[in-house]
Amino acid sequence: xxxxxxxxxxxxxxxxxxxxxxxxxxxxxxxxxxxxxxxxxxxxxxxxxxxxxxxxxxxxxxxxxxxxxxxxxxxxxxxxxxxxxxxxxxxxxxxxxxxxxxxxxxxxxxxxxxxxxxxxxxxxxxxxxxxxxxxxxxxxxxxxxxxxxxxxxxxxxxxxxxxxxxxxxxxxxxxxxxxxxxxxxxxxxxxxxxxxxxxxxxxxxxxxxxxxxxxxxxxxxxxxxxxxxxxxxxxxxxxxxxxxxxxxxxxxxxxxxxxxxxxxxxxxxxxxxxxxxxxxxxxxxxxxxxxxxxxxxxxxxxxxxxxxxxxxxxxxxxxxxxxxxxxxxxxxxxxxxxxxxxxxxxxxxxxxxxxxxxxxxxxxxxxxxxxxxxxxxxxxxxxxxxxxxxxxxxxxxxxxxxxxxxxxxxxxxxxxxxxxxxxxxxx
Length: 427
Known about the structure:
The protein contains 13 helices and 18 strands. With 427 residues, the chain is an alpha/beta fold. Strand 2, helix 4 and strand 3 form a beta-alpha-beta unit. The protein is globular.
């Protein structure tokens, strides 16, 4: 893989991402209603708001009552359920005033049936042997675009530019990015970064896509940890995957870690269905390992229901955000601590040996004298006693979740409850 040619925006090294499912976030399900939630999310430590597709949804071959967000009928207007382009522009302006960055979901591989281009530029789409629009993945509510058409490529970039120029967005989360040729993304970034330096997140796990993108997904980690909870793999299996990530991706690559998102929640279950009592320890991992943590709408509640994908099915907010403090601690630490900077060669990650390596997952993040020590009991065993058998850990630390001191001089014994965690910051 060649060295990446694009430099990430400065703020991205210590950022986090919060995915907004606008349809289900409020009873109203629109831009104006969500704006009321933004001060709360900012207080929680959220840095980047990622909005699932805000474009209108095609009616032809629509799934369910409201259709899929990912079946677009027009790239340069908004879903009328959400409000107008002016409403979204006002949301972005307020978000910027609060200190957020805003990125939007971009679906470049396909459109919905009846997209405006099917009438104005039918040559922009792939055709089967019968000359009909189709989708090669078997998704029957969308049709594939033809990236051998240079005019389509140009118009796609101009559609993306519309949102940068008109609404001042800060980047794109690109849906199924690996289904679109890499050279298109390189051209798009080169062109759009001239308008404004943007943050680029790819929903894919192909290492070479970092030639165009700052960040990619860790789908394999999400599946591997689910397997671990079902006892289909071991901690050694988790380590093997993390080692693979280290060798397959450039050190400057941002990897995005998560325990839930719109696809997983709706189709495969909430994080509590997949991970049970391990969910919070995995959230700690996502916020402290080398990468960018990503949350989904309602995880701070916590939301324990699957949200319907094609229907109105609001999150059942109750006015109590039980995990708000938990996430505020983690997101603030990730934002402010130099040892947790993503993709920074000065911020090193060390897996630590313990006397209970089959149950305890321990690691140290270190940047000069700045250190964050993370201890996870990835087992249902209540009260695992262990010692850290690594000279890297020594001296005085404080508990990030309670500020109580902890002396790790010498080979100190430690004890963690079932599926419990500790995060310590070097004094």
